[in-house]
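Section 3.1 - Work completed
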Amino acid sequence: MIKSQLVQRIAAKTSDLSQRDIEKIVNIILARIVDALAGGDRVELRGFGQFSVRFRKARTGRNPKTGEPVTVEGRAFPRFKPGKEWESA
């Protein structure tokens, strides 16, 4: 499912808000999740799951073409851990 499909499905279930308003709300929610993760915070949505940031250390890798050692910088990446409700799904 892509974001526009999510907006359409929410709009089909509610008559109080326009599709444009729902799209704004979805964009705001997603932006706040991204902002929190960028700040190093964890986001927990009860009944859904947790978003967090993990860090990989810098390491020495190899260029697959030449076999030469290459320095791979450390970096942060987002992680999602599904909630317990997903175990039965």
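Second construct:
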Amino acid sequence: MNSQRFLDRLDPAAWRQLRKLYPPRPDALRINRYDDAAYWVTINVERAQDLWLDRSPSLRILDLGCGAGYFLYICHCLGHEGLGLDTSGEPLFHGTTALLNVRRIISRIDPGVPLPDLGAKFDLVTAHRVCFHRTERLGNNNWKEWTAADWKFFINEVRTRFLKPEGRLLLDFNPRLNGSSFFTPELRACFLAEGARIVRSKALLAADPSDRPRFKQSN
């Protein structure tokens, strides 16, 4: 897919006004410049393609930690129905989700705490650049993170309450600050026990724990 056709739908004047209302922090890295529509649309077109969303029938999609809303914007352009869930801590996201016409529920995702009732089940639940598992900053850019038991609770919560019988859950993690994989031996064992297929930074799970779904380019 050509990302330009998704950018052409956006109003340049509205986007310029957004930048005036929410100027970037001086220390913001490019990857955190969420007003950079060209960059983030391109990234999320790739994400949609990796999930076959450019060639699948209309799906109901829940994006956890939806951030600025670009992924759901691409999904909507491709004919899917999307809902985001995130905290309200980043003011810019109020502006971007409004411009992108993304529906969003304000909520935290805490360990061992049920998610809010969304009144629906979904064909696909996603979370990109997952960071809700970080619960406490310990200094030196280290974090206290969810335990394997916390992840087991979360996966079961999504499966039982939010996934349709043929649904999928995709979790995409950042590498750790030292460059190592998110999947420590303990966490890898936990996710595999839950039926996940792991490829690099991503874990893909089916609604049925006995089913191991395949990535588009899984080898």
